[in-house]
Design brief:
about 30% strand; about 170 residues; 4 helices; alpha+beta; seven-stranded mixed beta sheet; globular
Amino acid sequence: MENDFLIRELHSGEIPEAVRLRIECEDTDFPGIVQPGTFQYDEELEEITSWIECSPGDDLRRLFGTFKEGNLIGFIGLSYAEKSDSDNGVEINYLFVRKEQRGRGIGRILIKQGIDFFVNQGVKDVIVYCYRDSDANGFYRKLGARVLREETQYPNDKPVKVDVFIWNVKP
């Protein structure tokens, strides 16, 4: 893959574009799980802004973005994992890549960038919650993730199976 893009930490002025990308992806990536139009810009902007700014206690949260020709084409958000998932892990809270940019390794590179940052903080495991019936589920399996546990979530009051994945970081 030709490396014709830049990956770096997002700054606060770029969060609105990340929110638009998240809504674009969630409206199309989870048919039958999330109804199009479920996510509203103002609510999502508040959620991600609060998430990044309100790190409780000793939590550490970061957003990294991929840019091509100055345009955001993907982003990842990571934080320390819940102790119930891993005593020493990082959780992928957000990972979105524009549909037309998929298949170029951007998701993998974003994950590597985020994990590399957190490995320097001493993490050993990666955790991600993923709808079982989404395309992303297969993506994480290809990365070597294994199912730590299964749970049910209720988006739009409809029960949906979620796989909680874990894989070990190899520095």
